[in-house]
Amino acid sequence: MELSRATLNSMAHVILGLLMLWPQTLYELTKNFQAGVSLFYSASTGSIKRALDKLLANGEITVDSKTGPRGKRPYRITAAGRAQFRSWMLDDLDTGGMETEMLARVYFLGLLEPAERSQVAEQIRRRIGEDLDRLERLEVQVRAASVADGFEDVATYQRATLKYGLAAHRVALAWADDELPQSSPADESAR
Hints:
Layout: H1 5-21, H2 26-35, H3 45-57, E1 61-63, E2 75-77, H4 79-90, H5 98-107, H6 114-144, H7 152-179, H8 185-190
Antiparallel strand pairs: 1-2
């Protein structure tokens, strides 16, 4: 199965975050995906291996030439990998898979300096707010639209889907306000 470029990039960043914590073998990375990362991102051993190969080719990680216990070789993040990870954390959220991208950044937020944490949190709040505004505008349009005869049931469930999106974004915004760091005046002046 071929992974999309966006999926491979996203997985590579998650792997960089895990390697920021400590060097890990493929087995350990797979276990860490299952133990915590799977809350927002699932991956097979094969897809993790493909992402590791990409990171190795880019010089963002290295792999020990000597095998450790049980013949395993740990992967380590390089300075280039640390820079790439930090850049990704501070970059705007992608348009697709927003929830996964957001939660991946929150999962690793503690690896950044406090001012950078606030910056990422503000980007997350802004993105959720923008998406919520877009859905609220759509809701106004949907309320004003007439439904063609015979499509009333279809429209009912399409509106239910929209209501779910609105509710999910409102909950996400409240969660971000409760759980993520707030910007301080010092953070604003540092930018």
